[in-house]
Each structure stands twice: as structure tokens, then as C-alpha cells.
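Recap from last week: sequence in, structure out.
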Amino acid sequence: MNKPKILFLDIETFPNIAYVWGKYQQDVIRYTQENCIATYAAKWLGEPVFSKALPDYTGYKPRSYDDKKLVLDLWKLLDEADIVVAHNGRSFDVKVCKGRFIYHGLQPPSPFKQVDTKELAKKVARFNSNKLDDLSSLLFNQKKIKTDFDLWEG
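Predicted C-alpha cells:
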């Protein structure tokens, strides 16, 4: 019997760009650009971490939201995986990927099981916060790399 292929995954998206009348509880008047996947980091169990970002692809133009090549790479990873592990993956990372697969006309990848570390943390204990950065600080004394809006804008 073969060992399952376990993929650890994290994606980041570019923000939506839109017109609004104010800051608080506003409806969007018009989107000028809907979000897309900007980058991913992944790791097969027992292998080193690897990542891709939109500028890694031939033909990328700055401020482009064309994620088709990156999404195709993500599709191949998920299609190969037996198990996908992600923090908040069930409600964000994997769903965003699947939405982009549909948008780009791709068939669903082969079925895989999901392990959502955020769901597991909530299931076994009550922490003040279940954000990955907060759990990592609390349990492993390690912080995530600072990822604020300036990073996305840059």
C-alpha cells in the first residue's frame, strides 16, 4: 500500500479593488478588479518548502491580476495530493483555489481529504485567538513574517 501524498498549503490573494462611498458598512458601487491568487507556499511531507508568485511566470506584468498559470500549478498540486493540510483551508485556501479553477475553466482536481489546522485547534481547546500567527506565537514562540497591506500593494 502506498503512503498518502500529504501537501501543506498556504495561499495569499490580491485584494479586490472597488469604488465605495465610505469606510464603514458600505456596499461596493463597482469593482474595478476582483481578487485573484497572488502567491502560494507549499510543502510535500518530508520535502522542502517551495513557493510561486505571479511575477515568477513568463509574461507577468506589474499589477496584473492574471493568475491563470499560477492556478494551473495549484491545480496540479491539489490533483496529486491525497491529503491537503492548511490553516483555515476548508473555508478559505481550498475554496478560493476551487473558485479560481472554475473561473479558469478547469475540471475539479482528483478528490482529496482536507485537514484544517484552525478547525482542529478550535475543536481541542479554546484559545484567545485561532489566527495562525497567534497560535504559532503561543505554542511555538514563532511569529509569521509581517504581512500587512504594504506587502500586497508593493
